[in-house]
Structure formats: structure tokens, C-alpha cells
Amino acid sequence: MTAVLQHAARVASDIIKQFAFCQQLSRVDNPTRDARENGLRHISSTRPRGSN
User: Fold this and answer.
1) 15-50 pLDDT, tens per residue?
2) Cα separation, 47 vs 50, whole angstroms
3) What's the whole-model pTM score?
4) DSSP assignment of 1-52, as one string?
5) Cα 37 to chain center, whole Å?
């Protein structure tokens, strides 16, 4: 049973590493998406309270 758990933990950490790597790649690939997300964040922070 512990071997199964260890294997599952190893697989999960591999998936997490791959996901983080893909996110780094997409961030390098797509700076405009980051700018758009920052712009949306800025707009939502300047919107008056209680409008959502």
C-alpha cells in the first residue's frame, strides 16, 4: 500500500513540475496575455465597490 502511495506522490509531483514548466513557457511565449491580465486586474481594482 505504501508503494502505491509513493508512486502516486511521484506522479503528482511530476505533473506539478510539468504544469509549472508549461506556465513558464506560456509566460515567455505570451507577454501580451500577462499585460491583459494585469490590465483586467487594474480595471477591477479601480471599479467602484458594490458593482459586481
Assistant:
1) 888 888 767 766 665 566 666 666 666 555 565 666
2) 9
3) 0.41
4) -HHHHHHHHHHHHHHHHHHHHHHHHHHHH-HHHHHHHHHHHHHHHHSPTT--
5) 12
